[in-house]
Amino acid sequence: MKTTAFTQYHIELGARMAEFAGYNMPIEYNTGIKDEHNCVREKLGVFDVSHMGEFWVEGPKAFEFVQKITTNNVADLTDGKVQYTCMPNGKGGIVDDLLVYRFREDKYLLVVNAANIDKDFAWASKYAKELGMEIGKELINVSEEWCQLAIQGPLALKAMQKMTDTTVEDMEYYTFKELSFGGIERVCFSTTGYTGSGGCEIYAKNEDADKLWKAVFEAGKEFGIQPIGLGARDTLRLEAGFCLYGNDIDDEHCPIEAGLGWITKFVDGNDFVDREYNEKMKAEKPTRWLKCIELLEKGIARHGYAIEDAEGNEIGVVTSGTVSPMTGKSIAMGYVNAPFHKRDTEVFIRIRKKTAKGKIVRSFM
Amino acid sequence: MNVPENLKYSNDHEWVRVEGDVAYVGVTDFAQSQLGDIVFVEIETEGEEVAQNEEFGTIEAVKTVSSLMMPVSGEVLEVNEALEDSPESVNSDPYGEGWMIKISIEDASQLDALLSAEQYKAIL
After folding, report:
1. What's the pTM?
2. Phi and psi dihedrals of A361, rounded to 5?
């Protein structure tokens, strides 16, 4: 099992550890998932997200390459801006969802899911070679060399400001700066994250991991900062209505069905993989849609549970579900067949021997 | 890990407190610590005869669903209804307020096969 630069800290803090995407990761610390979840919503919390993958894309073909393999319009980016996007798989599914950072017109950083690093790099390499790019020079996998902490919550930027002379407190959402932080000469400070509570993500070299960990906790101490495990990471993203690759999006569903039409841009100059498929899907309307479902009766929907109509006919499948630690409501996401996907439609989740009534909602927050 | 001396234990991490010919059943401190925050306890076997090692309900943590297994055969006489509104009692007081069911004991010899506190500690 692989470790991150912070694994020893988690163990010393008494975290319950488990393997995730091949890495030994903290699931929760001593106060539990609910407390960690609420700490991020109300104050700020720190996630070790060093397992995420990072690829550099450089050179004269960089723009054309990123434009080709991702659905969003890379031409919308300027230096210092970040874009959420996904890679279609050429068969109407999704290879991964990812972030694209524009450092320069000819230099981009792609940040991908830990579980997909090898798959994504192989996929990206195929297209890079077609464009005559040199793997290892113009497309470089630096996942093993970097560590990353996500500091999320309403107080995150205010707290982290203490560790740098560059102004970060008023940075816009989905932007980044390279700056010195807590005695580290250069980190990439990015106002991104996957919790719905704002904050930042800081990328550094592995050799600076100790300095980064200490600086982040020192800065956040007076605000009540806590380490947060993968358990709360999942409840936070689900409550915010964000997709998790492997649960809600995968090689079998296209971005339009997954509600990712907003990152799938059919504009001139964005000739991405599967554009034709997705454009047709958008025009003809999908037969199933990824939707948020709030349960109105007792029970918790889990990945794989059937969704039924009032007559007991199967009309979909749950992809994620939990009890919202903030509201106590039972919430889920799942693919629901049209026309049952429309807002406020009553649906039923098959939970063991019974069903629990729920309804389609726009969001949970 | 809290393992009270006066209780019997199953290999599935349920505890049994015998009171004459009835018994109270719940999950152990170890079980709740492994599950994490309990968000839902569903027991719909009240009034039913449930055999040893059969499921009498389910317990759900934030991330997981687990079966609750009968440590000994018997009828489910009573369900702890307080858990419906406060499942977190299973975390905070697994041997007290977090009890789950009261059962009749069908075959007292099954109790002898359960683990003592000392034996249970040895499997943790």
Report:
1. 0.93
2. -125, 160
